[in-house]
Amino acid sequence: MNLEADVCIVGAGPGGALLGYLLAKSGVSTIVLERHKGIDKEFRGEHLNKEGEYLLKKYGLYEKVEKAGPVNGPG
Fold first, then answer.
1. Percentage of the chain surpassing pLDDT 70?
2. Under 8 Å CB-to-CB from 12, ≥6 apart: which residues?
3. How does DSSP assign 41-57, residue by residue?
């Protein structure tokens, strides 16, 4: 596989995914690499704090995340 982009982000956690989205939305050629095939990766203690909620709302993504529902955590 040969991929080319201006920016490569390694890790599609909350920060990497949002950064990739914002860069791509701004017209920057962006690739986000994630080692897991789906969103059901191991739980690493992520949560949505007030700042994260603010950012998602600011960029019109909060409703999409809320609609998708929670990702399975521990247990």
1. 77
2. 20, 32, 33, 34
3. PPP------HHHHHHHH
